[in-house]
Design brief:
Blueprint (H helix, E strand, L loop, with lengths): L3 H14 L5 H4 L2 H20 L5 H21 L1 H10 L3 H5 L10 E9 L2 E11 L2 E10 L11 E7 L2 E3 L2 E8 L7 E8 L9 E10 L6 E11 L2 H5 L2 E10 L5 E9 L4 E8 L4 E9 L4 E9 L3 E6 L14 E10 L12 E2 L4 E4 L1
Antiparallel strand pairs: 1-2, 2-3, 3-7, 4-5, 4-8, 6-7, 8-9, 10-11, 11-12, 12-15, 13-14, 13-16, 14-15, 16-17, 16-18
Length: about 350
């Protein structure tokens, strides 16, 4: 697929967002003509290349043009609706940093069984893909509950088993537009280069009575730039848990999308790890266990949503490792974490 189509959509979206309170005024006749010319050039380029995705890209480009024309024609009510529909990864995570240089703006909508899913954005980082999407009823009626699409992720044509996490909430008071963020954890996969991604949702609602259908999204993305811009600080601290398991905190990594601490372990353990951190600028954060395979794993800053992040410009950060024993019977994890070892400082 020609990624210029995505770059074009990203550029148009960025220009419109530059003055979000006056979308109608931003779209003058001259600018509409300029967008039309650029879209036409992209379509002609794709057609000359004989791309098998020409029809999809053409439809998306024409749809973008129609959307802008409708925005200019119908005024503030439509403008307000469009502002609500947009749902970025930065908004979903509550990020104060700027992900514009790293994200892929997909903006593709698929309708089936009375529901419209729009894949908004995608960002690739180290062993992780994060996407945002919106869900609406085709008839525009409100939804009585939060509905979660369920499906499969494919990378370069192969289905992958990925651990997932995320959140969903309504973007409007009427509960007509649901915004969701999903992160796919892909340990051991090199996502630095460009890959073809496909998300296939086959059900809305995780219960048996959920709505069956097919919502398919194809896009390309790479994590090279975000990975390159990641600050990496070596830790190399060794600990022994109460059950004798050896834990080595390996590295602290910080970027605009996430903050994580990688570790390795020797021996099996029934303890869950956590790291508390405080930087020299007064910021505090907690790194909770996100991925583990028995020999290695990583802890991720869970406080980013509340903007509790380590400042990459801070001079130093103080870290403390904690652990809690997992229950053997009822499955209820205690909050009684105990410190393992003494606090230590890292220079940033």
């Amino acid at each position: 697929m020609n990624r210029e189509a995505y770059r074009l959509a990203n550029e148009i979206g960025t220009e419109l967002e530059a003055d979000g309170d006056c979308l109608r005024e931003c779209l003058s006749d001259v600018e509409m003509k300029r967008y039309e010319t650029r879209i036409s050039e992209e379509i002609k380029k794709e057609k000359r290349m004989g791309g098998r995705n020409f029809r999809r890209i053409s439809a998306a480009a024409c749809g973008a043009l129609v959307l802008m024309a409708c925005t200019a024609a119908f005024g503030e009510e439509v403008n307000a609706a469009i502002r609500k529909i947009g749902f970025s990864i930065g908004e979903a995570l509550g990020l104060s940093g700027d992900l514009a240089d790293y994200r892929e703006v997909v903006g593709t909508s698929v309708t089936d069984q009375g529901y419209v899913i729009t894949l908004e954005e995608a960002v690739v980082s180290n062993e992780e893909l994060v996407v945002t999407y919106t869900l609406q009823r085709e008839d525009g009626e409100p939804m009585e509950e939060i509905l979660t699409p369920d499906g499969t992720l494919y990378i370069d044509g192969e289905a992958v088993n990925a651990g997932t996490g995320g959140s969903s909430n309504f973007l409007d008071e009427e509960q007509r537009i649901l915004g969701s963020m999903v992160s796919y954890h892909l340990p051991g996969m090199d996502l630095s280069g460009e890959h073809e991604y496909r998300l296939v949702f086959d059900r809305i609602g995780i219960l048996a009575e959920g709505t069956r259908g097919r919502w398919v999204f194809d896009f390309m993305a790479e994590g090279a730039e975000l990975i390159e811009d990641t600050k990496r600080i070596s830790i190399g601290r060794e600990y022994q848990l109460p059950d004798g398991t050896r834990i080595i905190l390996e590295e602290l990594t910080l970027n605009e999308l996430e903050q994580r601490i990688t570790y390795s372990q020797e021996g099996s353990t029934n303890y869950m790890l956590m790291v508390k951190a405080a930087d020299s600028n007064g910021n505090r954060a907690e790194f909770g266990l996100r991925s583990a395979d028995g020999t290695s794993g990583y802890l991720q800053n869970e406080e980013i949503i509340e903007d509790g992040r380590i400042d990459r410009a801070a001079g130093k950060v103080t870290l403390v490792l904690y652990a809690v024993e997992l229950p053997e019977e009822d499955g209820r994890i205690s909050e009684d974490y105990i410190p393992v070892g003494e606090p230590f400082e890292l220079g940033l």
